[in-house]
Design goal:
The chain has nine helices and eleven strands. By secondary structure, it is an alpha+beta fold. The longest helix is centred in the N-terminal third of the chain and has 12 residues. It is elongated, with a radius of gyration of 28 Å.
Length: 249
């Protein structure tokens, strides 16, 4: 964070024409810091002030926002001879709708409707069975880049090499909230697993009413007009990865 290059902002490149940030003050320094901070998806705490100042430049009319941001960035005394630098300042940075960071991308949870299930139950008072539809939702980390991330990734003067490393699967709400899904396995495999990866649960198999009434109470369950036999199922806990976005160097 100590130097902003006059001709380039590419990371790891050394230039003799560099500006010492310690010699700059006020908005001039914040403008230079904002340009450098926005060039990386990993932003240290020292970037907070400059990014807050930059994104506070906002007007109801988009063109006013763009012009004001350009004017702010031009306070940083970096040469404009390089066309790519001009594009970075005037086309990319001026049109951002927010910062882009790996942390922020991994906090963008996407929700979708997976299916609608009907649940029926008997009132138990001779009034028949009541049914209701229940929406089953799925969740995942959004695999799409934000507009700001797409813009910043398009510049050769930034360090954005963002990659989505999770699958595109939506996990049901219960799975998502507890942090793992369940994979049914044999009892033999179950017994060989560490205790932390084991879980048992009920598994229902639909049967006829004739088979149902023959079973002990603790081995049967009725849901509406359907009859089920209760089995003990063995599961392996499969952790759900939520740190999906990484920046590949």
């Amino acid at each position: 964070m100590k130097k902003v290059l006059l001709s380039i902002l590419a990371f790891g490149v050394v230039s003799s024409n560099a500006i010492e940030l310690e010699m700059l003050t006020g908005d001039t320094r914040l403008a230079c810091e904002a340009m450098l901070c926005l060039a990386s998806p990993t932003q240290p705490a020292e970037c907070s002030a400059s990014l807050a100042r930059y994104f506070s430049i906002h007007f109801k009319k988009p063109w006013k926002t763009i012009n004001a941001r350009k004017a702010f960035l031009n306070l940083c005394p970096i040469g404009d001879a390089d066309s790519e630098m001009l594009k970075y300042k005037n086309e990319i940075l001026a049109n951002l709708d927010g910062a882009c960071s790996v942390e922020a991308l991994n906090q963008r949870i996407e929700k979708t409707l997976l299916r609608v299930e009907q649940f029926c139950e008997s009132s138990g008072a001779g009034d028949g069975t009541s049914c209701k539809n229940v929406n089953i939702y799925g969740f995942r980390i959004n695999p799409q880049l934000t507009n700001s991330c797409r813009l910043l990734s398009s510049s050769k003067y930034t360090d954005y090499h963002l990659k989505y490393t999770c699958n595109n699967k939506f996990y049901e709400q219960e799975e998502w909230q507890r942090g793992y899904e369940l994979k049914e396995i044999s009892q033999e495999i179950y017994n060989a697993l560490p205790v932390s990866q084991r879980e048992q649960g009920e598994k229902l198999t639909e049967i006829s009413r004739y088979e149902f009434i023959k079973l002990p109470q603790n081995q049967r369950k009725q849901i509406g007009f359907k009859y089920y036999k209760i089995h003990i199922a063995y599961y392996q806990k499969m952790a759900i990865k939520k740190e999906c976005w990484v920046n590949e160097k």
